[in-house]
Amino acid sequence: MPHSIHWSARSSVLSEALDNLEVIMQEEGIWPDAKPTRKALDSALQSTVPFAVDSLPFESWLAFIFIPKMRIIIAQKQTLPAMQITPAAQVYLNGIGHRTIAQLQTIDDIASEKGV
């Protein structure tokens, strides 16, 4: 029972952090204007390159792959993956999106249990 309570608290905090990430990306002008084509998304999902940057811009990966996938993981109560997205964001967002990067750090911390 304690595990399910812990999972519930973590998933709630993570869900809110993902919602905040989406809002922050929109406020900072980083959220993509259009969804990638099905072909581009399929290519990104098959990519072996971290964050599928060979198929999509990093911010499109965040918006259309990472956030939806994390929401599925939460809904299905799956184990959160180990991740460190913040260092990649610092590289790929290249000096823009400071609040987005800070929010990704929050998400990294939640996934690694530092944030809950």
Automatic annotation (TrEMBL):
Pfam families: DUF446 (PF04287). Residues 15-109 form the YqcC-like domain. GO terms for biological process: single-species biofilm formation. This is YqcC-like domain-containing protein.
